[in-house]
Specification:
The complex is a heterodimer of chains A (132) and B (240).
Chain A lengths: L2 E7 L5 E6 L9 H18 L13 E3 L4 E6 L5 E6 L6 H16 L14 H11 L1
Antiparallel strand pairs in A: 1-2, 1-5, 3-4, 4-5
Chain B lengths: L9 E3 L23 H8 L22 E3 H17 L4 H28 L11 H17 L5 E4 L6 E6 L21 H14 L3 E7 L9 E7 L1 H11 L1
Helix pairs in contact in B: 3-5, 4-5
The chains are: A alpha+beta (132), B alpha+beta (240).
Chain lengths: 132, 240
């Protein structure tokens, strides 16, 4: 019942924000995070074509033995990825709140360039208050 | 989408007249070309679906209406970005935001005085500084931001300096200034509003905004009012 990390991926597939909470996951170099985010972006695009029931917007959860990855795809192409333990029930609501914090602290910040890495204290402090 | 949720915090509209920034977003006649008003008059009041021109609305009716805080946040963010491209430094940016706030402040003062004293039998206005400052602290803040400011202080070092403190100013709530511009306070806009109200009431001053964060309130802002010498002399003369 733990949250391991949060990634925010822009519409081009580049990682704009990454945060680890607690030590459920081993630390990686920032380059490895960029590669993982880009890979996930590509995989997500492919999964939208693989759906057996017709149109699909892409994978929403990817579950493994020791983790679960929940992906929120917004209408603008931004992806919020939450990495949690396999039985975390609140992942979707947390992602909705992260989206709300993003639209507040990042989009309304005049010093943030869209699609660029997020360097905002307001966003950091609110995300930490939300997921620790 | 997240932008349009009904639970968004709101704060009061300033005025319905020529304040381009803060008029309620509902009316669409503001930006129309000169030919549009004639369309309005030909339709007249007959059709039920015709919305009245925003300039013809009763000023008192709009007293408690509010503007979406998110809409204003986006507009203000764009104002800051637009200004940032055209200035040479932090001081210039603050000065420009101050000027914009000044233009809003003159209208705030008119509207506030009209609404409070306009219908009274014996309208009066503040001529001493402290009551004027108190009225700014409560009435201006309430009409612009929806709640009175958090504190008023008088400086101990200088006799002509006073401070209004806001723990979480609504217009800068979502702004995170980058580390290399940490002196910048976008509340210079509010400082401009205060400066215009003081000028209109007859207390010329220089008003600036400064970030004074605390543990509990990282967005805490102090608006510093430095009165001009003429005001101090007049206050001295009136004291006796």
């Amino acid at each position: 019942m733990a949250i391991f990390g949060l990634w925010v991926i822009n519409k081009a597939g580049g990682l704009v924000y990454q945060k680890n909470c607690g030590d459920g996951l081993p630390g990686l170099t920032s380059n490895e995070y960029l590669v993982l985010a880009g890979t996930l972006h590509g995989i997500h695009a492919i999964t939208s074509r693989l759906s057996p029931i017709g149109s699909s917007s892409g994978a929403q959860t990817i579950e493994g033995e020791s983790f679960k990855m929940t992906i929120l795809l917004t209408a603008t192409g931004t992806k919020f990825v939450l990495l949690t333990s396999p039985i975390e029930p609140t992942a979707d609501s947390i992602l909705a709140k992260v989206y709300e914090i993003y639209s507040d602290a990042v989009m309304k910040n005049p010093f943030h360039t869209p699609e660029m890495p997020i360097r905002s204290e307001g966003f950091d402090s609110r995300i930490t208050a939300l997921i620790g | 989408m997240a932008y349009a949720q009904a639970q968004r915090p709101r704060f009061s509209a300033l005025s319905t007249t020529s304040v381009e920034h803060l008029s309620p977003a509902a009316s669409t006649t503001r930006f129309s070309l000169p030919s549009a008003p004639s369309i309005n008059t030909t339709l007249g009041g007959g059709k039920a679906g015709v919305r009245p021109n925003i300039y013809d609305r009763n000023l008192n009716k709009m007293r408690t209406s509010e503007v979406s805080a998110s809409a204003f946040a986006f507009l203000f963010s764009e104002v800051v970005q637009y200004t940032q491209k055209r200035v040479s430094g932090i001081a210039d940016l603050e000065r420009r935001l101050n000027t914009l706030g000044y233009r809003v402040g003159t209208r705030v003062l008119e509207m506030m005085v009209w609404r409070t004293e306009g219908s009274s039998k014996a309208p009066k206005r503040e001529i001493r500084f402290l009551p004027a400052l108190m009225s700014i602290h409560t009435q201006v803040w309430k009409s612009v931001f929806g709640k009175p400011a958090d504190a008023i202080e008088k400086s101990v070092e200088n006799q002509d300096e006073y401070m209004i403190i806001d723990n979480d100013p609504p217009i800068t709530r979502h702004i995170s200034v980058p580390r290399d511009m940490s002196q910048l306070s976008c509340s210079s806009f509010s400082a401009g509003i205060v400066e215009a109200v003081l000028d209109g009431l007859g207390f010329p001053a220089r008003v600036t905004a400064h970030n004074t964060p605390t543990e509990q309130y990282p967005n805490r802002t102090t608006i510093l009012i430095k009165l001009e010498q003429s005001v101090m002399e007049r206050e001295e003369a009136l004291k006796t």
